[in-house]
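FYI - complex with NAP, inputs then prediction.
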Amino acid sequence: MKAIVHYKYGLPDVLQLIETQKPIPTADEVLVHVHAASVNPVEWYGMTGFPLARPSAGWLKPTDPRLGADFSGVVESVGANVTDFRAGDKIFGTTTGAFAEYVCALKSIALKPANVSFEQAASVPIAGLTALQGLRDHGKIQRGKKVLINGASGGVGTFAVQIAKAFGTEVTAVCSPGNVEMIRSLGADRVIDYKNEDFTRNGERYDLVFDVAGSRSWSEYKRILKPDATFVLVGAKKGFPIIGPLAGVLRIFIGARLSGKKIAFFIAKITRQDLEAMKDLIESGKVTPIVEQSYPLSQAADAMRHLGTGHAKAKITISLAEEKAVALPAKTKQALQV
Ligand SMILES: NC(=O)c1ccc[n+]([C@@H]2O[C@H](COP(=O)([O-])OP(=O)(O)OC[C@H]3O[C@@H](n4cnc5c(N)ncnc54)[C@H](OP(=O)(O)O)[C@@H]3O)[C@@H](O)[C@H]2O)c1
């Protein structure tokens, strides 16, 4: 089978397409024929050798050369102890080495939403569950509350806008000028173009701030919080090269703690229960996974370069099958083409 690997850390040129052995599932695993995978910042950190990951990923070079986590595909066979999936099931989830034609997977999988393409399903696990867990579990989102999403047009942000609307909140979304129409088409009540309006100086205050971009200082964020507001910190600017986004995360986190505000920083957990919660939201039409562009496996490096700009629109996927992303609402499709 074909797979993407990297034997050293670095920019996307380190990625190689190789021919390798098809994996063999253990008794607890399923073997999946991958139809699509999606790219996330976590692969960028793994590929470049984000220093905090090196104790487990390998100090000087990756101990495991595989790359990729999110995938969707069709179960080809199941291990002897697997009772909840069978050959032919269409599934989505995460595993190690998803940028490959076949993967073995264990716990973090669920049946794929029936009404979306494999590309769309592959775009869901990390970004979708980060948005869901951040808003629901850490942000304690409640109907009728005012929510601000900063960094609304990327992978996590496009899910967050739709999930926050599904919870019945009033959503203000912040993104760059070229993405305003796309975000509006996802149902945001108000969209702020950060190049032309400073959302920390327009007098608005929010019950919940969900920050994917980490683009502002804590003294600026403080101005937009209602007295009992919660601030959910998801990511930050890449910042200082040695510790990547961690410097930005720490700066905001410490600022919030010192001022006594409620702040949560978390790492999403990919559970079957929450994959199924996303499946329900997607099948009920409340959430539509948006895929901006899909690359063939042989062009995984281009997919990573695209993500590495820090300005990808919605999700970028890697397609391993003929099928292309479809089923976007017409308004969103039109906005993506602008
Ligand atoms: N905690 C977790 O478990 C977890 C999970 C997944 C991701 N993350 C983190 O979350 C962050 C985003 O992930 P992602 O998958 O959504 O990445 P992504 O798809 O690359 O999206 C990043 C978005 O940030 C926006 N952005 C850049 N500069 C901005 C600014 N100054 N103001 C507002 N928005 C700005 C960009 O939109 P424009 O082009 O419109 O500027 C882009 O769409 C990363 O730091 C990632 O490491 C954390």
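Residues 2-124+289-329 form a domain with the Quinone Oxidoreductase; Chain A, domain 1 fold (CATH 3.90.180.10). The pocket of NAP is lined by residues 40-41, 126-127, 130, 150-151, 153-157, 174-176, 179, 194, 212-213, 215, 234-236, 245, 266-268, 307, 310-312 (CB under 6 Å).
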